[in-house]
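Hey, can you fold this?
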Amino acid sequence: MATTNLGLSQPAQGTLDWHSLLNTNFGLVDDGVTRAPLFGLTLSNNATDATNDIDIAAGAAVARSGSLPLTLASALTKQLDATWAAGTNQGGRASSQALANGTWHVHLIRVAGATDIGFDTSATAANLIADHGATHYRRIGSILRESLAIVGFVQNGDKFMRKTYPIDVNATDPGIAAVTRTLSVPTGIKVEAIFSAYADSPTANAYWLFTDLDETDQAPSGSLLMLASDTAVRSGIGTFRVWTNTNGQIRSRTSGSDANTLLRIMTHGWIDQRGKDA
């Protein structure tokens, strides 16, 4: 038995399934249902080059292909503005992908028998596999690049909070039909968006709903609402968590709207299960 500096006891790579890894190291019973685990591997903005670099803490996870336990024994720093090369302070981007604004998925990968980290626009590491011969992968998080820089964030477990909050919706007289709203969260995956909403209705009473687009569209009412604004109180505000689709979108709908009705939505962050629930 070999012991890594994480204290995870395991035999040689490729000889242990993830149920056994759980049982050996975490005392969990193998019921054949428990989902693929992830330990450590916390992401953070690099202090020296926050614009382009991400730090990844040591940790371990089970690959989505082949159920191989992958251990990152030491923390790494990887560069989004350079194409992938093995090791710390090296490039991390799949070589066929141009550096661009948008979502970059962070993958724990195995290349030439070694565990490393790579960035890919694909949530399934398709380009890291094609470009660099990754044989196994596990998405451990997703980051955003906006205005030519990696967005500042803080990760605590599955929660990713932006360091600054953008106003993603600033709508006047939105109407009473459902509207699809795009939030500043990762795309290519479903996440649980964390956002605050402010509604002002000085001349028309209004009830508001914010829902997953996979849910049935419903008209809000006095008995079915998440937020209310009316002529007496005028404004309402609240913080909500709603699942997005893979385009980072949710649904908003109100029961009353006129030229003086205002809706603002500010995105705080998101919850990302990172494959632990499937």
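Oh, and this one too while you're at it.
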Amino acid sequence: MAKIHTIAMFPKLQPDTITALYILKTFGEPFFPGIRNAAVKFWTTTPNGESPQKLEAEGYLLIDLGGMFDHHTENEASGSKKECLSTIVAKYLKVDTHPSLRKIIQWAKRDDLEGKGTISTDNLDRAFGLPGLIMNLNRLYPNDQHRTLDLIMPLIDAHVREEYKRNIELPRIWKSLLENHKAEIFFIKNGTQKGAFVQTDDLAMAGFIRNKEDTKIVITKNNSGHTNIITKQDSELDLKPLIKEIRLKEASIKNTSIDSNKLTDPARVDGAEEWYYDTAANTLQNGGAHPQGVNPTHIPIEDVVNIVKNIYR
């Protein structure tokens, strides 16, 4: 096959066709040189009735217009409706089991074969679900499919990148942090539940640990010295004893006074302004994700970890 200069596809854009286009452009370069930067054109039929094979030999790659990537033809040949364009493309490129693509392929297949891109019956969920928005864009820009692609493709890319981070990057980083003693798993509640400490600037790491390790509490310290404590909200872990000890320790180190009647108050209290008790999220924040204007805690991280261990032992 010649170097790909153009991808031709049907003008009515759907979740499946957009996903297949994304997979081709993102993962197809080793199989189809030039495809990453190939132009996209919209045809309802091939020009002058030319065969897909002839066009492919000239550097066109057709999707759902006959040729090597047409799920209608493949399903008819097999006698069963089990493939969508995204699954055919992903299998050809050998990325059908790629962790980053698993969900997006399942979504595209379900939307194409079952018409259930958005399962929820809630009117708001359906109105703002991606299949519905794609349909709206098709109606709004019937003659400008590139505009629809320009709006939807970055959303798919954001999802795929996040899946890569969750499934590949964060597990690798977490393992390295444990091996280099920048992270620790410990037990609370008489050994029945887990907690964790991690030193990292990655804002996604705490949530990753909470889900992967099923921890009820995670202590994070970033490189600026800010320390935050988050919980798994369904654990119903009472943070009042912890915020009391943390605030007393903070005030003691700074040699400041603190009202003993306000030690478990939500938000901030005078004398230990470094800590914000968020009762809605059940977290103790020493600056949170964006600590501008909040000083790092004066409490050594080892002491914070030990306070947590002692209170919830």
